[in-house]
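R.M. (postdoc): so does anyone remember the format we settled on? I'll just put the structure tokens first.
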């Protein structure tokens, strides 16, 4: 029985490909769905070339769901086994297309972590494979699923701010420590600038519509990054210049000015470097007032200031004439949902769970996920467009990056991963 009161869908048999940190986060998301009675999956397989990591994930899934999934160490064997109807791809971005394309062409549905691909060409390979096979391809983009971001979208849709003049996204300040994991500092495996950049470009598109152009700079602010105490970096392509110190080759920073197709400028500053004060801001500014949105997955309040009034919480919802999250989000976040008190892990599991559920329902309905393959491609194009602008020394159109017309910054990465430059048709 589906606890949301809606029509239940047939459980989707799925295999998890990639059992590291993000893979375990996806297992926690499946468990969050299971715990609220909205579990639309059967995790029947896990896959990772690291045998101990795959076995640990299988043990965890067995503990969560009472059934230990089959363990595979090669994604090709999992695809050929016909053990599942879908794959949840949670490898590093350089391998996303390597796993997803043969799966899609074999008739499996795929949800793939963001960034959908490490380059636009990699994304295009996946989008084309899904179109050719008639399968569902979804991009696992979780920030937009957060309650405050859903509320912020409602504020904009109802025009509370009037004509929008500007959006600001600022995340500046940090240190020289490795951000999340070492491979995120290597360009050929997916830099942290790309990893975080697609989060922000998806939010921009979710709030304000498609992006028209960008001018900016993508750079390495911290050329040497410090590993966590006692750890080492076994990842191929990483130079450990001394014990505990790696050389970063992938961009860790984006500073850019976007413009939407409707003409709204968006100022982005993502620079996770520098030991001074940390600055974080997501705000939207319009003729009637402004809106500030809390840090993602924090459960903080959206604050709107209009006509000398400051609105948040129940007052803001009343100004909107009422606001409710969809039933699943309400189950995961609580009845209010737009503001909540959850641990970071629980909030993360909720947002990932919502994207997984959306994927299952798209498969059941033979429909389209909220963030499909093309949506994932456009966010990757918008993030890479900053580096393309830097390379060209001026403004670039997002459409030109999305259709492959502009690709100079990406070409060296495509050469390494075996996707040499070629003419690509415009997105359908």
């Amino acid at each position: 029985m589906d606890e949301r009161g809606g029509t239940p869908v047939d459980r989707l048999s799925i295999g998890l490909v990639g059992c590291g940190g993000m893979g375990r986060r996806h297992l926690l998301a499946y468990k969050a769905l299971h715990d609220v009675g909205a579990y639309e999956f059967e995790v029947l397989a896990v896959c990772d070339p690291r045998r101990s990591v795959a076995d640990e994930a299988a043990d965890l899934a067995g503990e969560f769901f009472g059934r230990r999934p089959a363990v595979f160490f090669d994604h090709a064997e999992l695809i050929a086994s016909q053990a599942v109807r879908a794959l949840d791809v949670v490898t590093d971005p350089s391998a996303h297309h390597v796993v997803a394309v043969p799966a899609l062409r074999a008739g499996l549905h795929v949800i793939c972590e963001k960034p959908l691909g490490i380059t636009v060409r990699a994304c295009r390979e996946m989008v084309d494979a899904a179109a050719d096979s008639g399968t569902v391809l979804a991009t696992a983009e979780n920030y937009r699923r957060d309650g405050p971001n859903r509320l912020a979208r409602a504020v904009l849709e109802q025009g509370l701010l009037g004509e929008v003049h500007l959006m600001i996204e600022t995340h500046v300040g940090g240190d020289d420590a490795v951000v999340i994991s070492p491979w995120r500092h290597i360009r050929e495996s997916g830099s942290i600038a790309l990893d975080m950049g697609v989060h922000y470009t998806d939010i921009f598109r979710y709030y304000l519509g498609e992006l028209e152009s960008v001018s900016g700079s993508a750079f390495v602010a911290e050329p040497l990054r410090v590993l966590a105490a006692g750890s080492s970096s076994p990842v191929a392509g990483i130079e450990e210049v001394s014990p505990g110190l790696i050389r970063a080759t992938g961009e860790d920073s984006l500073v850019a000015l976007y413009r939407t197709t409707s003409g709204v400028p968006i100022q982005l500053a993502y620079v996770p470097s520098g030991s001074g004060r940390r600055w974080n801001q997501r705000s939207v500014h319009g003729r009637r007032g402004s809106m500030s949105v809390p840090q993602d997955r924090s459960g903080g309040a959206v604050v709107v200031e209009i006509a000398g009034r400051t609105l948040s919480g129940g007052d803001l919802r009343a100004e909107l004439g009422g606001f409710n999250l969809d039933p699943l989000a309400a189950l995961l976040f609580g009845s209010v949902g737009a503001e909540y008190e959850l641990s970071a892990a629980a909030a993360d599991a909720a947002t990932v769970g919502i994207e997984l559920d959306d994927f299952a329902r798209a498969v059941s309905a033979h429909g389209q996920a909220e963030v499909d393959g093309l949506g994932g491609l456009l966010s990757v194009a918008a993030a890479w467009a900053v580096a393309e602008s830097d390379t060209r020394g001026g403004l670039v159109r997002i459409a030109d990056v999305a259709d492959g017309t502009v690709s100079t910054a990406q070409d060296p990465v495509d050469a390494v991963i075996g996707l040499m430059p070629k003419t690509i048709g415009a997105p359908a």
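R.M.: ...and that's the designed sequence above, right after the tokens. Also worth knowing: The chain has two domains: 12-143+366-372, 144-340. The chain is about 35% helix and 20% strand.
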